[in-house]
Amino acid sequence: MTFHQYPNTYVSQVHLLVQDVKRSTKFYQEIIGFRILSQNERQAVLTADGKTPLLVVEQPEGAAPKQPRTTGLYHFALLLPSRADLGSALLHLLQTQYPLQGASDHLVSEAIYLADPDGNGIEIYADTPAESWTWNSGQVEMATKPLNAEELLAIGNGTPWNGLPEETIMGHIHLHVAELQEIEQFYCDGLGFDVVLKYGPQALFISTGGYHHHIGLNTWNGPGAPSPKENASGLKTFTLAFPKEEKENITGRLRKLAAQVNEIEGALLTQDPSGNKIKLVFS
Fold first, then answer.
1. Quick one: which of 38, 151, 209, 269 is 20 to 30 A from 104 by CA?
2. Could you tell me which residue ranges the VOC domain spans (predicted)?
3. Is it the case that residue 1 has pLDDT exceeding 80?
């Protein structure tokens, strides 16, 4: 999983707003397989390995339902260490009878899709070997084909499900945005990502270090989609991990784009042109 290590830039954590933190914590433990790292009456910090925070669920004051046709989270994606682990997770999900929204073979990965009780999208996936990915003129070939669930279940049959494997990481995030031209400038010119796939006129996939994508961006909720209300269920922030030597460069490039940048405890807080809030950490 070197695509999610120094010197690459990658998503390390996602912070969600939910209507009922107890309900969400139960779901993320029992259905997804997280462990609780810490919690209080309003918030739970969730982990796969018992030490690294991957997901935060928070119940804000006056928590409201997720708003349709807005910018924000399309899904966050948990990357499992192996195909056998994905097969084990699929069997677990089928046994719980929790409703799935889809399952696909994307050539670069195999993925299962569902949503939490608030409608926040979740992808659970495993990558295919990077040497099998096809690149043409800097663009990675991806597709949406039916998942071979039967084969995956057979491969995972010898791997008992005991929650998320400790090696699970936040593989990528996929966002609803209001438009793509200014968004591409922000993420590529400002944050240093590379475009790896333009999926028609409505979606863009970007990464660092030759990964198939660390961030997906789409306008499927409609061009000009508004930001959701502050207390609505959905994405509060997501965290991007950068090499520490990039901090000054990133700050300068974002300010050149007239993006708002605030520093808090060594991290930078900013937001993309569609209002998606981002925490930048440097280590």
1. 209
2. 10-127, 169-283
3. no
